Structure formats: structure tokens, C-alpha cells
Amino acid sequence: MYLEFLSNELFLDIFEYLSAVHLLRAFYDLNIRLNNLLYLHFKIHSFNFQSSSKYNFDLICHQYLPFITDRIYSLRLSDDDDTPNQIDLFFSYGLSFQQFSHLQSLSINRIYSLNSMKLLINQLISLPHLIHLSITRYFILYNEEYDMNMIGCIGRLSKLISCHLDITTDSEFYFSIPSIRSLSLKYLSLPYLDCTIKQLVTLIQYIPNLQSLTTSLTDFLKVLIRPVIVFSSIKIFKLNLHGSFHAMRSLLETMPNLEELKIEMISSYIDGYQWENLIENTLPNLIIFQLKMSFSLSTQKSREKQIDEILNSFSNQFWIDNHQWFIQCYWTPMGTCLTAYVYTLPYAFRNFLYHDNGQFKSTYSNTDHFFNHVHNLYYGSTNSSLSPIHFNNIRYLDLTIPFNDSLWSILTKFDRLKSLKIVLINQMNEINQLKLQILFDHVPHLYSFTFYSWSIENIFPFELKNSSIRQLDLRAPNIFYNHQQCQQLSQSSIVQQCQILFINLQQRIDVLNLINQLNHLNVLIVKCQRSEMNENLTEWLEQYSLLTFTTSDYEEIRLWIR
What we know:
Structural class: alpha/beta
Strand order of the largest sheet: 1-2-3-4-5-6-7-8-9-10-12-11-14
Oligomer: single chain
Low-confidence stretches: none
Distance between the termini: 37 Å
Shape: globular
């Protein structure tokens, strides 16, 4: 059977399993029919350059993209560690957003340089049909030129419906925040904004159709402020709060039609009676309530008694019968750590800090399956007690060595674990290395591994084996690999299969040695031991025109090799 005899529907089904890069290289310009099917596919699927190899990125940008820009409706670019300097390269190849005349969705992932930010801001207004916009930065630091200009851009995109930006404020709140003026915007996510109530109200007061808002707030109001404006259209509100009860209540009173509230409170606690009063009198339409509070227990009273008082305030008819909103407390019964956590069940947040000497109490009897939303687990071990809770959906694990056998009781599945960070406190002896290898044997889909130690004696164990690791981070404050150690590294099976490598080096010649010896290496992120050597390294690398690289404020050089 000839390929041309396949139906259009079957071709489109096949296209679902292939990346945009592979589709263009395999099917573009074979005939008019296949071209039209590709255009139809790109109308509903993103053209995604994230994690692309440099070879494929260069090939597509030079040979294909200039001829199909008006056929692309969704585009994703990334400056992340696997594709450093991609955004600057994209513009340097003569491409501009103005050519993408029908673009409706744009995602810019972890933009790295100020130059890229300027180009991006200047070109955004060339996208009159843009509906979805997402821009994240590599470093979430206040940059007035970027943050204020991005706010101005939003109002100039007249069809924008959904927007995610990581703009933030200066730490002292000195500036006067402008307003976003938009009739089309419905979904706004500014998770790092970290503003006051006054600044937030100023920012969103001219978005009459806003339905969903995600942001952070730092405000320690001492008195309740009655709202001078009401945001009746907002149905979903996700808030990270560092502030007072009066600040939170003052803000929530501006959103009387909320149906979903997700809130994380840092260093503050509100008991169940106060929450009940607030919800009943301020949020009558609330259906979904997801809460997490962290705070310090008093040293003047038994910790267990304080926890019981907290749970009692969340145990009446309002919580249990009317809404089925159940609460769990997690705390350390002994020792110097006084931090306690109070959260709704199921646990609705991605991060969880677990110590195996902690204790749990809840208003619900069976909490075993309530932690599926946790993707990032930070695990500290001091004893081998069995855990009453289990994590089945972990993607990232931060683990201290030595660790004990209680790890196996809380992590019942390892098949979804993609990223592992090991922090070594003591020496990497045979027992610790054996435990780490056993852990590797349980993780079939591990992609990224970070090996971190403060001691210069603890370099990466060359004998470790895992066939799935493709990203390896060996950076540590005091460890710089010498020439001999680099030679040993290049013989390690994990390093040989590595595509992305982070490392500190003593000698710049080992930059080229690693590139030449590691055939699968696509990206090398490197720092030399002395600052003047890093400056010379930049000049030295410019001799090798085939290497694309950027520098950072941390004296790292990011090389996109192939």
C-alpha cells in the first residue's frame, strides 16, 4: 500500500505522534495535499521549540519557518538550560513576530537575557490576534524596564484572553504600579507579583471581565478596609499571602462571587472559627476551598494541645457536614523545629516538605490517598519510622544522604520520578553509594540528576549506573573538577549518555575535551575556578564560531553545542 493512499484523517492521526520538527522534515513540500494537512495540524497544535536540538532548531529556522510563518497559530520558544540562547538566535536569524500574522498563542519559557526581553516587548504589539500569552524568566528578579513595559503591552493586545507573566515588584514597593486596561482578558496569572492590596487593585481595576486571578500579596494591614471597588466577575482566585488576616479579608471582600479559592499563607495562621465567619459573610458562593498555612507553634503550651485546639476549630458542622472540607495538621512533636502546617484535604499543592519524625492529625480518618497533587517532595530523614501517608505521583525528589529505609514506605511508586537531587552531608562511603545505586535501580524514567556536596572530597561517584539519565548537574560551591577527574567522568556510563551537563572546572581546556569526548552532549553549562579565567574563557570560546554561548551574572557560561 502506498503512503498517498492513506486517508486525510489517518494522516492527521499520525501527525499527533510526531513533533513539528519531525513533521516538517518528513512531509513538507512532498506535495500540495500533505502541505495542506500540515497547515491544518499546525492550526490546532503548538510549534514547540522547547528541548529542540540546536541542529533541528537551526534547520527549521533557516529552511522551513520563513515559508510557513503565516500558517502557524501557536509558538513556543525557550531559553531554558536545554536550549540556551534560543530566543536571541530566533531573532538573529531574521525572524520576527510580525511575520506570524495569524499567531494566537505565544509561550516564552525562561527568557534569559535583557536583550531578549527588549526584543520581545518591542515585537509583542505586532501580534493583533494573540489570545494566549505566557512569559517566564530564568531569574525572577525585579526589572523595572521589563515589568512595567510588560504591563503596558497587555492592554495593547485587544484580543488577549489568557495571560501568564512573572513580573514582580521592587522589595520596598517604591514604584507606582500602572493599570492593565483590557476588555478581553479573562485569565490573569502573576504568581510572583508580591504587591500590596492597593497596588493589586490599581493593577486590575480596569479588567471588567476578569474571571480568574493568580498572584501573591505582601501586606500587613492592621485594620479592615471596606472595598471601594468590587470585582464581581472574578470566580477563581489563587493567592500566596504573606501578611495579616485584615489584609486577606479586605481583599476577599472585593470578590463576592468567588467560587474557587486556593490560598497559601506563609508565617501566619487563622483558626477555623475565623475562616467560617469570613466565608459565610463574604464568600457565599464558594464551592472549592484549598488552604495551606505554615506558622510557628508557641513554646508556652504543649504542641499536642495546640494541634488539638486547631483541629477542634475546623471540626464543627460548617466544615464537616455542610462542606466536607477536612483539615490535617503536620508538625514535629519534639526538637527545635516549631513549624506547623495546616492544610485542607486532599492536599492541593505541588510541594511538600517531609521529615520522618513529624506527626499527622486530621479531621478525616483515612488520608492515605490525599497527596496525589504533590509533585515535588523534599525529604529529610532522622529515623526509620513508617509513614502514615504515601506519595504516588512524585516527579521531583530532593533527598539528603544518608537516608533511611522509611523512604520506601512513603514513596510507593517511582515510575513518574523525573528529577532527583542528592545533598550529601557526610562522606560518600560504600554504604551510601550502594543505597544510591539501589534507588537508581528503582527509577526507570529518571531524566535529571543533581549531585550536591559541600565537601571538596565528595566528587561524583563514577561507578553509578542508570540508563535513563540525560541531564547531570555536578555544581557545588567548593568542587571544581581537575583534568584527571574530567577524564574519569568521561568514562562514566551516566556521563557518556548525558545530553546536558552542569559542571565547575579548574582548567578551560577541559571544556573542549568534554565536548569532544561526550558524543551525546548537547548543552554544557560551565564555570571556571577563578573569575578572571571565566572572563578569558569567553574570549577564548569566541575563537570557536560553531559554539553558541551566553554568560550569566554567576560567571557561568552556557554552551549550546549540537
